[in-house]
Amino acid sequence: MAERGGSVSRIPLPVRVALPLVVLAVALLIGSGALEGSPPTAAQRAAAIEAGVRCPSCTDLSVAESNATTAIAVRHQIEGLVAQGKTTADIDAVLVSEYGQTILLVPPDAGGVPVIWIVPLVVGAATVAALGVFFWRRSRAFESLRSGATGPGATEPNANGPGAVEPGAVEPETESVP
């Protein structure tokens, strides 16, 4: 971003961080279909429900993909329930009561999904906090050792260990007390 005149034109850091986030948010909003004004038609709703319902006589096929007579019967049943104005949850409940839980290709949410996402986030945040506290304390201890050794009246540490006499140094004489 340097200009030829030698002056540097810089975009402020908050703008450099916020701009990609705003672009991402707008792209996700448009891609999610939240801005679409018309609700799905009855045929679209029925097709979406049929894609999530297993064919009772087939293996791993939805009723939308199968041409078996049981799949056709379930499709007609779903279309009739949609025409009556039933919700997707009501239709799923009717099908489960008649055919069992295995009729649904996607199992219902058991409520444990948030735990799967929240626990690792909490553990990660606690780990980052613990590491932050650890390094903060360690840096404070290092600074106190450093400032204590270079403070006024501090002497160089003896390489021979504490209490050792440096070579060539004269020990003060002590008086002997009888």
Describe the structure concisely:
The protein has 178 residues and is mainly alpha-helical. Helix content is 53%, strand content 0%. The mean pLDDT is 81.
What do you see in this structure?
- It contains five helices and no strands.
- It is mainly α and 178 residues long.
- Among the domains are: 42-103, Orthogonal Bundle (Helicase, Ruva Protein, domain 3), CATH 1.10.8.640; 111-148.
- It has helices spanning 13-32, 42-51, 69-83, 88-99, 113-149.
- 53% of the residues lie in helices and 0% in strands.
- The model has no long low-confidence stretch (mean pLDDT 81).
- The termini are far apart.
The biggest beta sheet is recorded as: none
The CATH architecture classification of the domain at 42-103 is Orthogonal Bundle
Which blocks of ≥5 consecutive residues have pLDDT under 50?
none
Class derived from helix and strand content: mainly alpha
Helix share of residues?
A: 40-55%
Write the layout of secondary structure elements.
Elements: H1 13-32, H2 42-51, H3 69-83, H4 88-99, H5 113-149
Helix pairs in contact: 2-3
Features:
single chain, about 180 residues, about 0% strand, mainly alpha, Helicase, Ruva Protein, domain 3
